[in-house]
Fold these 2 entries.
Entry 1:
Amino acid sequence: MSMLTKRATVYLEPSLHKALRLQSIETSRSISELINDAIRDELAEDANDLSAFAERKNEASLDYEDFVKELKVNGI
């Protein structure tokens, strides 16, 4: 473990802990690595979502009723 890492206590549901242990064994990676990767992926997804919101912030708003009408016109 790198000297730059930080410790944290995380309480996992027993089923999640078991799944992590099994995946750790199957992939020859530590539980910490798996958790770090999962958190990194989740944060990257959040960053992508925020970026998409920022790109679309100047789009015109669409009234709910107009939106529903448009869906019906398109057969959705």
Note: The radius of gyration is 21 Å.
Entry 2:
Amino acid sequence: MNSKSALLGVLAGITAGALLGVLFAPAKGSKTRKAISRSGEDFVDGLKDKLTDLIESMTEKFEEAKETATDFAEQHGKSKSKEA
């Protein structure tokens, strides 16, 4: 299990716990619905942040791989031209 999956699982668990706590708390229905709505919005915001982090990480890794491939091609091309 990678750290991103574990972090997502923990985030989901915390959100589910908060939601259950709100559902079983003695409060008016309107307050409970607002609290559930806020919890849902917080969960979605957390997922958006994680998705943004994942996309940024993948973009960085892609750029690194692209640079490595370019460097390799340049070095490989130079050694071929010296042999010719």
Note: The chain is about 90% helix and 0% strand.
